[in-house]
Write a structure and sequence with these properties.
ten-stranded mixed β-sheet, alpha/beta, 31% helix
Length: 297
């Protein structure tokens, strides 16, 4: 927990004393803040399955993606403060409700507190796999703190070209940072392992959300992932980009859904490369109805 006195958990390296009330780029204090804790059924099939993923949505974020679907929690930071013991109890409750895993969404800025909660929960009988669900904008040093505690990594890799990372997420050197982070994740958990029902127990799934007008950038991302990891990871190629008009006044190029034609072009590109271990989405996913209610419950 001492790292919160000079916070360097994420690549922003703010160096603020969160224990004394200082706030860095993400806006988080030293208290855990969550916006939702519930079973979630809209992740990849191997994560949600039939029973659902035991998902904890953390408030605040170390990116500022202008198109963020979870804007209410990433930018507005709605939610409520809880202790590490209460978070541990939430994990155990989700396990009792039949969750396939404990799914930590946007957890980077709370890693020390999460480690404490996981250890408390494991002493009380938590046996579910821990899934770390992040933007990919991670420090390797922080990920090393999680070695042996996280079973499944679910990072994004949003951009290849830094121009887009800076314009749309305020993140310099995003690809360089995310690619190093994914390498560390893979070194910790290795190849994907599934149970008899197809539910993932261990491994790395990398998500890439296709954005309007960036098909060439998307191709570079897929190319990098496949040439680096072949079939040792899964790639989730997503078409669910949902433009929230109120957020995109200064970004008209993003104010439209993904064309089915361009999405299929990207899928065909992946197939031609040789990609086999991938998830793809059918039509109808770009709807605000898929965005959870962030009620603090």
């Amino acid at each position: 927990m001492d790292i919160l006195e000079n916070c360097t958990l994420c690549p922003k390296m703010c160096g603020v004393n969160r224990k004394n009330g200082e706030r860095g780029f993400c806006g988080a204090s030293d208290k855990i803040k969550i916006a939702r804790c519930d079973l979630h059924f809209w992740e990849e099939p191997c994560i949600s399955g039939i029973s659902g993923s035991g998902t904890v949505f953390f408030s605040h974020c170390n990116l500022r993606c202008v198109y963020c679907q979870n804007h209410k929690i990433s930018h507005q930071a709605i939610g409520k403060n809880i202790s590490a013991a209460e978070l541990a109890n939430s994990f155990l409750t989700l396990q009792k409700r039949g969750a396939n895993n404990i799914n930590l969404v946007t957890p980077t800025h709370y890693v020390p507190q999460i480690i404490k909660a996981i250890k408390i929960a494991k002493k009380s009988g938590l046996i579910l796999p821990i899934l770390y669900n992040s933007s990919g904008y991670e420090r390797v040093e922080t990920l090393k703190m999680l070695n042996g505690l996280v079973d499944i990594y679910l990072p994004d890799i949003k951009y290849f070209d830094d121009r887009y990372a800076v314009r749309y997420s305020g993140a310099k050197n995003y690809f360089e940072i995310a690619s190093r982070a994914i390498a560390e994740m893979f070194s910790q958990v290795g190849k994907c392992v599934f149970d008899e029902n197809g539910i993932i127990k261990k491994g790395v799934i990398v998500r890439h959300l296709m954005l309007p007008n960036l098909i060439f950038d998307s191709k570079k991302v897929i190319d990098y992932l496949y040439r680096t990891y072949k079939d040792d990871i899964f790639i989730s190629i997503m078409n669910q980009y949902t433009p929230i008009k109120s957020q995109l006044a200064d970004y008209p190029e993003l104010n439209k859904k993904i064309s089915g034609k361009y999405y299929h072009t990207l899928i065909n590109y992946a197939v031609d490369l040789g990609v086999k271990n991938a998830y793809i989405q059918e039509g109808g996913t770009a709807k605000e109805s898929f965005i959870p209610e962030f009620s603090g419950e």
